[in-house]
Amino acid sequence: MARRVDSDQTVIHRLEPTSARRPSRGGAALEQRRGPGAPRSFALEAPELIVGRSADASVCIDSHLISRRHLLLRRVGPTYQALDLESSNGLFLDGVRIHSAVLFDGDELQLGDVLLVFRETGGGT
Amino acid sequence: MSVFVKFWGTRGSIPTPGHATRRFGGNTSCVEVRVDGQLFICDGGTGLRELGLELVARSAGTPIEAHLLFSHTHWDHIQGFPFFSPAYVASTALYVYDVEPHDDRVHRLLRGQMRHDYFPVSFSDLGASIHSANLDGGSKTIAGVRVSAFEQRHPGRSFAYSLEREGKKVVYATDNELDMLVAAPEAIARYPDARRLCPPEFVRFVAGADLLIADGQYTDEEYPQKVGWGHSRATTLVDLALAAGVRQLAIFHHDPMHADDEIDAIVMQCRARADRFGGKLVVFAAREGMELRL
Question: What is the reported pTM?
Answer without folding.
Answer: 0.93
